[in-house]
Amino acid sequence: MSDHVYFYGTCLIDLYYPNAGMASIKLLQDSGVNVIYPPAQSCCGQPAYNSGYRDEALDVVAAQLGLFSENIPLVVPSASCADMIKNHWPSLFEHHALAGQAQAIASRTYELTEFLVNVLQFKAQDLGEPIQVAVHSSCSALRKMQVAVHINSLLKQLKNVEVIEHEYKTECCGFGGTFAIKQADISGAMVEAKTTHLQNTGASRVISQDCGCLMNIGGALQKQQSRMQTQHIAEFLLERCS
Amino acid sequence: MNAAKQAFLKRIDDALHNPQMRRNFRKAMDGIRSKRAEQFIDDDVLQLKRDKARIIRTNSLSKQAELLEKLEARLTQNGIQVHWAETAQQANEIIYQLLNAAGAKTAVKGKSMVSEETELNHYLQQRGIEVIESDLGEYIIQLAKEPPSHIVAPAIHKNRIEVAELFQQFHPDIPYTEDINQLTATARQVLRERFATADAGISGVNFAVAETGTLCLVENEGNGRLSTSAPDIHIAITGIEKVVEKFSDVPPLLDILTKSATGQPITTYFNMISRPRQPGEKDGPKQVHLVLLDNGRSRIGHDAELLDTLRCIRCGACINHCPVYVHVGGHAYGNVYPGPIGIVLEPQRLGIEQAGALTSACTLCGACGEVCPVRIPLPALISRLRAETVNAQQGMASDNTLSGKGKLRTHSEALSWKLWSWLNRNPLVYKGFTRLATRMRFAAPSIPGWSRYRTSPKPAPQSLKEMLKQNGLRENL
Q1: Quick one: closest CA in B to A7, which residue?
Q2: pLDDT digit string (tens) for B433-461?
Q3: Does residue B219 sit in the same domain as residue B195?
Q4: Looking at B295, B320, B355, which one is the last position of a domain?
Q5: Is residue B65 part of a domain?
Q6: Partner-chain contact B327 A11, CB within 8 Å
Q7: CB distance A214 to A195 below 8 Å
Q8: Does A13 touch chain B (CB under 8 A)?
Q9: In this structure, are B24 and B78 located in the same domain?
Q10: Residues B11 and B85 reside in one and the same domain
Q11: What percent of chain A is helix, strand and coil (3-state, nearest 5)?
Q12: Which of A58, A112, A169, B334 gets the highest tally of CB atoms within 10 A of its CB?
C-alpha cells in the first residue's frame, strides 16, 4: 500500500480554498499516488488549541483519529495544520486512551511540499510564460515543520519562474489564527508591513504553503487594491506544469 | 472586559499610533538582530552552545536548594552577607535597612531588572534616599521618568534627538548636541561625580557561583564596576534562580549571553565580585551584601513545564526577534518584563487577572524559541499559559503555582468554542454548515477587527468535500 496516502483537506481549504485542495490531490495523483480522502474529516483543532481551549480541540481531533488508522502517509497541504498534527496531537493526547493513535498518525504526517520533494522526488516541467513571484514562507513552514526549503526547491525547478526575495522574509505576516481578531490592530500593523515588503519586489504573485497566511496577506492586498495576487503552491505548480 | 486587558489594549493602541517610536524600535531591533546573527554564523556551533547553556541552567535549577545553601556558605566565608527575601516588599525593606544602618543618603545603581520588579527606586526615594541610575540607558529613562522598554536596552525606544532634548532640559548649562559621543560624555561627566560621592552602590547579578561564592556582573559601561567598588557599601540584589553550580559554568553562559543579547563576543566589562575590601587594601566597598529574592520563583519551579521559565538568563534575544514587540515596543506590555519572556513570566509572577491578557499578544510564530540561548520553549509556554487564562476547571497548573486560573474565561468565547467543537466533530452538522456557508457566500459576515485591514474572506462556491464527492475520490482504503 506504499502508493496510497490519506489527504487532510484542512477546514480553511475545504471552505475557502478548495482549488488548492484539488490541485494538491491532482499533483499527488499525477505522481502515481492513490489519494484517499475520508469525508468525515474537519479541522485539525489548531484554532481552539492555540486559543487555549484544549479540551474542545481534543474532542474534535478524537472524533477523527479513527479515519486515518491505516499505516499510510497523511499528506497535509498546509504547514501549520501539519505542525498541529505532527507536533501537537501527541502532547494533546498525552495520558489519553487515544495517545497511541495520535502518536502513530503524527509519525506519518507530511506537509505537501515535503512529501512531493522528499518522498516523491517530484519533477516539475515548467510550461508557463516568464513570471516573477514572491514566496511567503509561513512561520510553521520555516520554524516548526522546517519545510520552507521545499517550496523553494520546487520553484527552482520552474525555469520561467523567477523568485524575487523580499525584506523581512522570515518575519510573521501577523495572521496567528484568532490573534488576527483578538489583537486586530497589531495584526493589522504586521500585515501592512508584510504586504509593503512583498509589493516592493514588484512580483505579480505571492506563493505560499499556507492558506492562513494567504487569507491574511491576500485580504490585505485586496483591501489596498493591489494588483498582486496570492496563490497556494499546489495551484501554482499545477498551473505551470499543465 | 478584565480591566488589565482593557488597559493593555489601550497601551497597544497608543503604541501603534506613535510612528516615531515604532521607527525607533524597528531600527534598533534590525541592528541588534544582525549583530547577533554575525556572532552565530555557524549554526551547528550555535546549536551546540545552546545545548550546553541549557544543560548548565537545567542542572542549576534541579539542584537549586542545595546550591543556594552552598552559595550562602561560600559568600559568608568570603565576607559577603546574604539576605533572603520572600517578597519584593521584603527585599526593599532589607535594602533600606542596610542603607539606613550605614547612614547612606545617596545610592548609585547599576542596571538591575530585579530591582525593577521590586520597584526599589520608588521605595527608597519615598524614604529619603536618593537613587541615581548609572547605566546610560537607565539614566536616560530615569530623567524621563519612564520604565525600561527593554530588559537589556532600557531606553531603546528613544532616538538620539529625543535624548538630546532630554539632556538639554536637565543639563541646560551644557551646550545642546545630538552627537552620540558628546551625549555620552555628558552623562559620563555627571555620573563620575555621583560615583565619587555616593554613599552606597546597588547592582544586580548575572550569575551567582555556588562553588566559589562569586557574584558575576556583565556590563558595557564600567558603571557596574564603579557602582560596586567606589562606594563604601555595595548591595547586590538578584533572583534565586541566578545561582549556578560551578565556576566553569560561567564561561559558556557568558559567551552565549553577550552574543545573544547585544551581538558582542564579550562585553566591555565582566566583574567577578568575591569579597569586600580586605585589611590593607586601599579601595573596594567595606561591606558587600547579597539580597536573594524569591518573589514567586519557587512557585514557578513546582510546575514541571513552567519551570523552564527559570532557565532565562535575561539576554533579551526573544524580545529582539519578536514581530509583535517590534511593532508595539516594550511599554505597551505594561509590566516589568516585555516581549515573549514577559508574556511567560508576568502572568506567573503577577497572576492571570493582572497579566494573563499578555498571552494574546503573540502569533506563536516561534521566532523567540528559535533564538533563546537556553532553549526555553517560549511558544509552548505561551500556549500553555493561554490555556490557563481560560481554563479554570481542569487547568494544568495547581492553584498555588499560578493564581487566577481561568479568570479571563468569558461565557461568550467559551460558548463559541463549544459550538465550534460540536460543528467539527459531527460530520453531518459540518456538512450542513459548509453547504449553507457556500450557498450564502455573498452574505458572509464581515469579521470584526479583521476587516479593518483586509477584505473579509468569502466561502468558495463549492467546498472541497463536495467537489471530491462529485469527483468520486476514494474515501477509504
Answers
A1: B475
A2: 999 999 999 998 888 899 999 999 999 99
A3: yes
A4: B295
A5: yes
A6: no
A7: no
A8: yes
A9: no
A10: no
A11: 50, 10, 35
A12: A112
- The shortest C-alpha distance from A180 to chain B (Å) reads 6
Which residues lie below 8 Å from residue B254, measured CB to CB, with a gap of 6+? B206, B207, B216, B218, B266, B270
A121, burial (CB in 10 Å: exposed 0-12, middle 13-18, buried 19+): exposed
The two beta strands, A74-76 and A131-136, are: unpaired
The Cα–Cα gap between B16 and B8 comes to 12
Could you tell me if B115 and B132 are in contact, meaning their C-beta atoms sit under 8 angstroms apart? Answer: no
> A54, exposed or middle or buried, with CB in 10 Å at 0-12, 13-18, 19+?
buried
Name the domain boundary from B376, B409, B442: B409
Helix (H) or strand (E) holding A109: strand A109-111
For residue A36, pLDDT beyond 80:
yes
Shortest CA distance from A9: residue in chain B: B464
Quote the pLDDT of residue B397. 58
Question: What is the pLDDT of chain B when averaged over all its residues?
Answer: 96
DSSP A68: G
Cell numbers at A164, concatenated: 524575487
The single-letter code of the amino acid at B2 is N
Report which secondary-structure segment, H or E, holds B5. helix B3-16
List the grid coordinates of A87: 507536533
Nearest to B361 among A34, A144, A186 (CB): A186
Residue B477 — very low, low, confident or very high, per pLDDT cuts 50/70/90? confident
- Rounded to the nearest integer, the mean pLDDT of chain A is 97
CB within 8 Å: A52 and B425 = no
Say how far apart CA A150 and CA A157 lie, in whole Å. Answer: 11
Does one domain contain both B49 and B30? no
Look at chain B and report how many structural domains it folds into: 3
3-state secondary structure of A230: strand
The ipTM (two decimal places) reads 0.97
CATH number of the domain where residue B268 is located: 3.40.50.10420
Q: Is B407 on the interface with A (CB under 8 A)?
A: no
Question: B336 is in which domain, residue-wise?
Answer: 1-39+298-409
Residues A14, B455 contacting (CB under 8 angstroms): no
Q: Which of B454, B465, B474, B477 to substitute to test the interface with A, most A CBs within 10 Å?
A: B454
In a domain, B476, yes or no: no
From the list B363, B369, B394, the residue facing A179 with the nearest CB is B363
Q: How confident is the model at residue B248 (pLDDT cuts 50, 70, 90)?
A: very high
Q: Which residues 31-60 in chain A show a CB within 8 A of chain B? A: 34-40, 42-43, 45, 47-57, 59-60
Put simply, the answer to whether B387 touches A48 (Cβ < 8 Å) is: no
B477 domain-assigned: no
Say whether both B377 and B310 belong to one domain: yes
Residue in A closest to B456 by C-alpha: A219
The per-residue pLDDT for range B86-124, each reduced to its tens digit, is 999 999 999 999 999 999 999 999 999 999 999 999 999
pLDDT digits (tens, 9 = 90+) for B297-317: 999 988 999 999 999 999 999
Per CB-CB distance under 8 Å, the chain A contacts of B467 are 18, 21-22
pLDDT tens string A154-192? 999 999 999 999 999 999 999 999 999 999 999 999 999
Residue B360 to residue A40, Cβ atoms within 8 A:
no
